[in-house]
Amino acid sequence: MYLEIKDLTVLYDRAMVLNGVSLTVGKGEFVSLVGPNGAGKTTLLRAIAGLVKWEKDTLKGTRAGRITLEGSVKFDGEEVTNLPAHEIVRRGLILCPERGRPFREMTVLDNLRAGAFGCKDKKVVKENLERVYHLFPRLKERENQISGTLSGGERFMLTIGRAMMSQPKLFMIDEPSVGLAPKVKEDLFARVKEIYEQGSTILMTEQDVSFAFDLAGRNYVISKGHLVGEGTAEDLLADESLRKTYLGL
Length: 249
What we know:
Layout: E1 3-12, E2 15-25, E3 30-34, H1 41-48, H2 51-59, E4 67-75, E5 78-79, H3 85-90, E6 93-96, H4 108-115, H5 122-135, H6 137-141, H7 152-164, E7 170-174, H8 182-197, E8 201-206, H9 209-215, E9 218-223, E10 226-231, H10 233-238, H11 240-245
């Protein structure tokens, strides 16, 4: 498997946020992780990206308490569990965080160039920039605009575009539809689908079950830090108990 998570457990002090989560993503696959707010979706992606351990080091001895991480993360055949976040990025595993979170004081163009920090070939950087602008023409229109002034949808476009600049092997996209108007959500849906159809591997978390099921070929359902279901949209929707209890349908 391209990405393999085994028995991942995260505790904040004594509170169990993730409890023995195991999942896989194959190369070229689109996998979604759905569940309500607070189910552990964002924590899972941050743990995979190496950010939970970073928090543990940074918050040690503060009132925030202790963060404990256990389990295994393998990517492209390599154990990456104990690697720092920047090394995980260099291996092509990129997180697009919830609500975008670009560098707010920088322009759109500077944000995109920052995404290509590991590429020294100017020709490749230019080609990647053209690809981003082709997919998100709105970013081209606003390339000199300060990122903090963008709308929510534009910020998420910028975050995905910034990730594309580093030519990721796998996109982890955290709740892209949160807070977006239906029309903006529909447009973002089409752009994410296009990225996948161009050959990308994607792991996406979502609260909007319909949004996720329409995009992903395989899905996991998470509740209170536990995985409670796995399968295609058809499989999961056919389970009446799962549909009513965890999917809100």
